[in-house]
């Protein structure tokens, strides 16, 4: 059943050109960062909210990659949530060494794209 759900999702995405551009744009920003832009002829197919959403997804994926550079198994131990006008990244004390300048920068980039503040909490 899970295979059919995944297959159905992919078919819906592949059927709609606009959705493919959203996924491609998010992937672009995940790999290249937010200071670069994909080809404008593709972005012109999206409205401003869809572009912003793609930037947010790409930025969140970029942050996740930084957090899991040692092991993707660690991702379950981190928590990210938004409360009011702040996005929080909660890190267990025993993994505080994973918070590098890169992680801090990418959390701030995500917060900027979401128009909120950022905060790291050690627990």
What does this structure look like?
The radius of gyration is 16 Å and the shape is elongated. It has a single domain, classed as Hypothetical protein af1432, CATH 1.10.3210.10. The termini are far apart. Strand 2, helix 5 and strand 3 form a beta-alpha-beta unit. The chain is built from five helices and three strands; from the N terminus they run H-H-H-H-E-E-H-E. A three-stranded mixed beta sheet has the order 1-2-3, with helices on one face.
Characteristic terms for this protein:
alpha+beta; 3-stranded mixed β-sheet; Hypothetical protein af1432; 123 residues; disordered N terminus; elongated; single chain
List the helices and strands and how they pair.
Layout lengths: L1 H14 L1 H16 L7 H4 L4 H20 L11 E5 L2 E6 L9 H14 L2 E6 L1
Helix pairs in contact: 2-4, 4-5
Could you provide a short overview of the structure?
The protein has 123 residues and is α+β, with helices and mostly antiparallel strands. The protein has helices at residues 2-15, 17-32, 40-43, 48-67, 101-114, and strands spanning 79-83, 86-91, 117-122.
In the sheet with the most strands, the strands line up as 1-2-3
User: Tally of extended strands?
Assistant: 3
Instruction: Describe the global form.
Output: elongated
Architecture in CATH? Orthogonal Bundle
Task: Give the uncertain stretches in residue-range form.
Answer: 1-6
Following the backbone from N to C, one meets helices and strands in this order, namely HHHHEEHE
| Helical stretch tally | 5
What's the CATH superfamily, by name?
A: Hypothetical protein af1432
Distance between the termini: 38 Å
- Determine the fraction of residues in helical runs and give it as a percent range: 55-70%
Radius of gyration: 16 Å
């Amino acid at each position: 059943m899970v295979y059919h759900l995944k297959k159905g999702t992919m078919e819906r995405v592949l059927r709609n050109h606009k959705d493919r551009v959203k996924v491609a744009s998010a992937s672009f920003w995940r790999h290249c960062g937010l200071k670069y832009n994909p080809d404008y002829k593709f972005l012109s197919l999206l409205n401003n909210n869809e572009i912003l959403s793609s930037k947010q997804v790409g930025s969140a994926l970029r942050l996740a990659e930084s957090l899991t550079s040692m092991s993707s198994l660690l991702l379950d131990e981190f928590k990210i949530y938004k409360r009011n006008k702040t996005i929080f990244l909660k890190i267990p004390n025993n993994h505080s060494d994973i918070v590098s300048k890169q992680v801090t920068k990418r959390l701030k980039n995500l917060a900027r794209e979401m128009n909120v503040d950022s905060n790291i909490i050690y627990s």
